[in-house]
Amino acid sequence: MAAQVTLEDALSNVDLLEELPLPDQQPCIEPPPSSLLYQPNFNTNFEDRNAFVTGIARYIEQATVHSSMNEMLEEGQEYAVMLYTWRSCSRAIPQRNAIERFCGEVRRLCHAERRKDFVSEAYLITLGKFINMFAVLDELKNMKCSVKNDHSAYKRAAQFLRKMADPQSIQESQNLSMFLANHNKITQSLQQQLEVISGYEELLADIVNLCVDYYENRMYLTPSEKHML
After folding, report:
1. pTM for the whole structure
2. What InterPro entries does the record tag this protein with (predicted)?
């Protein structure tokens, strides 16, 4: 007659099975698991342009220029915020680099051979944002009296240190005084540089017509897009 096994003995025997060696001659070919974190970023600013290699390199060139212009637009937005909220006259320096870059792109697109190529709507909208940025910076400069008052206080304080001031500082102060004294200086400088470019009216007409089409068909999302030009 078989001996009776209690429940405690049966459970202990089951626990002993965990220590039973079971050698496996098969090699382990599976790697250890690792966690992956994917975070989508839809605002790539054309960073993936090199992945789309085509037979026509001008589209990659346009994406490269578009990316750099978006960076300058962000810098212009920072200048607008500083002019609107701060009282620092050093932030009122005109956007010379942005104006030169904008006029350079207009000159390139107005070339006789370039006029035959296709220009995307996104690129024209970016140029429209540049024009809007220049107008916003001009109006902020005109309405902020604190910038002119701070610069006047700076010039009065600098008169006591005129012997210690170098010619470069004096020239920068004079340029800043002329810039603050003239209203719409940024847009006037832009207009002067655009007038020497042949065929710039057609490009500006394309930009204006596109912005009007977006406005009439309500193809905008934010107030800045609605009142671009």
Report:
1. 0.61
2. Cytoplasmic_FMR1-int
